[in-house]
Specification:
This protein is of the alpha+beta class. The chain has helices at 9-15, 65-76, 90-109, 120-131, 134-137, 140-152, 157-169, 205-208, 214-231, 236-255, 275-281, 287-294, 307-319, 322-337, 343-358, 366-390, 393-413, 422-433, 458-475, 522-538, 560-578, 595-617, 625-628, 637-647, 655-664, 670-678, 682-687; strands at residues 85-87, 176-183, 186-196, 272-273, 302-304, 436-440, 496-498, 503-507, 581-582, 587-588, 651-653. It has a 4-stranded mixed β-sheet with strand order 2-3-5-4. Strands 6-8-7 form a 3-stranded mixed β-sheet, covered by helices on one side.
């Protein structure tokens, strides 16, 4: 789903560093150029699919399989100072892909236009404007002043609404966040969705909870606000007057927003209205001017995702004088553009959002940040080159067959799901039959027509890219839903399920080792990428995805009795994961927040394993572990499957980031994506000869699909 407003790009750039075939495409595989890394930089080595060096033989597989599969890697891998998370699979492969993209950009920025791309010059100019840090300093104060002067020019409520719309076009979240998405109950139609936005802390609980150092983070945030205002040229009296008021305004907005776990219920965030109904709900904001400024005229139906939030927004606009509202807007601008202005503001932004919030000690290298910036603005252009260089028809054919095998396994298992009735089972089969897999790369990548890029100003390039993206997205309001569009770049190391399109998408970026190898064993491939494929398919039948029918509409197709049976089964999973903790001070996971991902993990492994067994029965093979890594221990094919799965999730995370993730991330940490799944998987216990009652073979297990 394409959105008008995304997470603030500034933070993304600094962090940079967690997831039936297409018709004929114009992208043709060609041999990739052999670049040498720039001076002083070494290549990230390719990660093996199965690595005995990652194992910890001192641990019994039936006691702690995550430690057994990953302990050697954990012990021998140091956390770089510029990282908050590292992972043997996802982040290592992401780093390799970033290096490949950077090769292209280094070439393009020096006037070497190979590998060929019609946008090579624009890509190179964008990258060069970011790499020239010295050039950011002198013009930065004037660029920021121009943004703030536009706020000072606001004289009334109409001016304020117009300014908010202009900022949203630049992807600067202020007061709320707009997007263009498929109508949840009419999947053939795109509509505007309005959601909370314009708050500087990650989630509602950061404003109100007193656990896990959140009060300390609130104090840091207030200091960050004051420091940033000072660096932006505000006087000390202005700062002292406005700091607490701005924080209180954000806190008041957060009070009426939903917690992250609550937003997982599609029905809680679907409230269709027309413009007149929205104006009645939130009368103190000039919505007609706002939409007119965006160029949106068809507002007969929109989704106001959290009505109570927009009531509160209206109250705050009414209660606060215009100068106070303007200072709030100024803060949102300063906060969200600091990372691409002068060094003093960048350092202050990094100190709070990266060092204090995440525990990151140093900046990621400039070349990585700049590669990320170009990717965020023009990623389809990079992805088109990447896919042509790295992903061929043979890889697409093999992965397509794997996906089909997993679909078949799920379909074959449906009659065995005892808690389903025949009517619901038939609807589930219908939904399964309409799944659309997308593999490798989009058939119609964005061409960036009209986007003007130069070497003169990195800041202006950022804003030009944001405005171009917003215009392209708003144009979708007047078009039928395009089922060929992708929500990820071709080089992205991730995958996704989109319930409104009933599609599962696997970019070329993740279809590399250690997830997939064209020459890898059937067991290893199904354990790694097969489990990811199964995971995405099961999202169509998790606690959220099950609420969308075969056409992608939010529609109740389950009887109340079957829904109750599902919820009873799911409650076992909620309870299991809510008992897990992270960090030395035992921060608990939220089993409701992570339920959908945990259901998908559990089902993904089950159906990848069944598909692997079916492929094996048909004679599919590949090299054994002993032939891949020599010398090495002898593992059965089934053991290879589970080791390959577990080693996907080998990871290390800083405590600060782990605590943040426990609050906002619907994914469980790596160790629980392994152990939490495999304790519920009898086939695992059989493969490693675990006895009933062993830690990895409990007597009572959770099961769903």
């Amino acid at each position: 789903m394409k959105k008008l407003a995304l997470a603030p790009l500034a933070t993304l750039i600094i962090i940079l560093g967690a997831f039936a075939g297409c018709t004929k495409t114009q992208i043709k595989p060609t041999p990739g150029p052999q670049f040498n890394p720039p001076t002083g930089r070494t290549r990230t080595p390719e990660v093996k699919m199965l690595d005995v060096a990652a194992l910890d033989a001192k641990v019994k597989p039936c006691d702690d399989f995550y430690q057994y599969a990953c302990g050697g890697w954990i012990e021998n891998t140091q956390m770089p100072k510029d990282k908050v998370r590292i992972a043997r699979s996802f982040i290592s492969l992401r780093d390799r892909n970033t290096e490949i993209l950077n090769d292209y950009l280094e070439n393009y920025s020096k006037g070497k236009l190979e590998p060929a791309s019609p946008l090579a010059k624009q890509l190179g100019d964008f990258y060069a404007s970011c790499m020239d840090e010295a050039a950011l300093e002198a013009p930065s104060p004037a660029l920021l002043k121009a943004e703030l002067d536009a706020v000072d020019a606001v004289q009334n409520s109409k001016d304020l609404a117009k300014l908010v719309a202009q900022l949203h076009m630049k992807r600067i979240q202020t007061f709320f966040s707009p997007s263009v998405e498929q109508d949840a109950k009419d999947a053939a139609t795109n509509i505007v969705t309005l959601a909370p936005g314009g708050m500087g802390l990650p989630e509602k609980s950061y404003y109100f909870d007193d656990k896990n150092k959140k009060p300390e983070m609130r104090a840091f945030y207030k200091s960050h606000l004051a420091n940033s205002f000072r660096l932006a040229g505000f006087s000390q009296p202005e700062i002292e007057t406005q700091r607490d008021l701005i924080y209180h305004l954000e806190e008041s907005l957060a009070e009426k927003s939903l917690y992250a776990a609550e937003m997982r219920d599609p029905l809680k965030i679907y409230h269709p209205m027309n413009l007149q109904e929205l104006q009645k709900l939130s009368p103190k904001f000039d919505w007609a001017t706002y939409f007119s400024t965006l160029g949106v005229t068809a507002t007969k139906k929109m989704n106001v995702s959290q009505p109570e939030y927009f009531k509160q927004l209206s109250e705050l606009v009414s209660l606060h004088a215009l100068p106070e509202l303007k200072n709030y807007v100024k803060w949102q601008i300063v906060r969200q553009v600091s990372a691409y202005l002068q060094k003093s503001l960048r350092d202050e932004h990094f100190d709070f959002y990266n060092r204090k919030m995440l525990g990151q000690e140093e900046y990621t290298p400039l070349w990585q940040r700049c590669t990320g910036a170009v990717d965020a603005a023009m990623g389809d252009a990079l992805g088109e080159v990447y896919a042509a260089q790295t992903f061929g028809a043979d890889g697409k054919d093999k992965t397509s067959k794997m996906i089909q095998g997993i679909r078949d396994a799920f379909g074959t298992n449906l009659p065995k799901v005892s808690w389903l009735d025949d009517a619901t089972r038939k609807k589930a089969e219908e939904k399964l039959s309409t799944f659309l897999p997308k593999i490798g790369y989009p058939e119609k990548p964005e061409k960036y027509v009209g986007l003007q890029i130069s070497r003169d100003s990195y800041y202006k390039n950022i804003m030009a890219g944001n405005i171009h993206s917003s215009k392209e997205t708003l144009a979708d309001l007047n078009k039928p839903v395009d089922r060929l569009k992708w929500g990820m770049r071709a080089h992205t190391v991730n995958a996704y399920y989109n319930p409104s399109l009933n599609e599962i998408v696997f970019p070329a970026g993740i279809l590399q080792s250690p997830f997939f190898s064209k020459n890898g064993s059937t067991a290893a491939n199904f354990g790694a990428i097969g489990a990811v494929m199964g995971h995405e398919l099961i999202h169509g039948f998790d606690d959220e995805g099950r609420m969308f029918d075969s056409t992608g509409n939010l529609k109740e197709w389950w009887t109340p009795a079957i829904t109750k049976s599902f919820e009873t089964k799911a409650a076992c999973i909620v309870d299991q994961y809510s008992k897990y903790t992270v960090t030395a001070d035992k921060v608990a996971l939220n089993g409701k927040l992570t339920l959908g991902e945990n259901i998908a993990d559990l089902g993904g492994v089950k159906f990848a394993y069944l598909a692997y067994q079916a492929a094996k029965a048909k004679g599919a093979g590949g090299p054994s572990l002993a032939s891949v890594i020599t010398p090495g221990p002898s593992f059965s094919d089934d053991q290879q499957f589970f080791i390959s799965y577990a080693q996907v999730w080998c990871s290390k995370v800083r405590d600060e980031e782990q605590k943040r993730l426990a609050t906002v991330d619907p994914h469980s940490p790596g160790q629980y994506r392994v152990n939490g799944v495999l304790v519920n998987t009898p086939e695992f216990a059989k493969a490693f000869n675990c006895q009933a009652g062993d830690k990895m073979a409990p007597v009572d297990r959770c099961s769903l699909w």
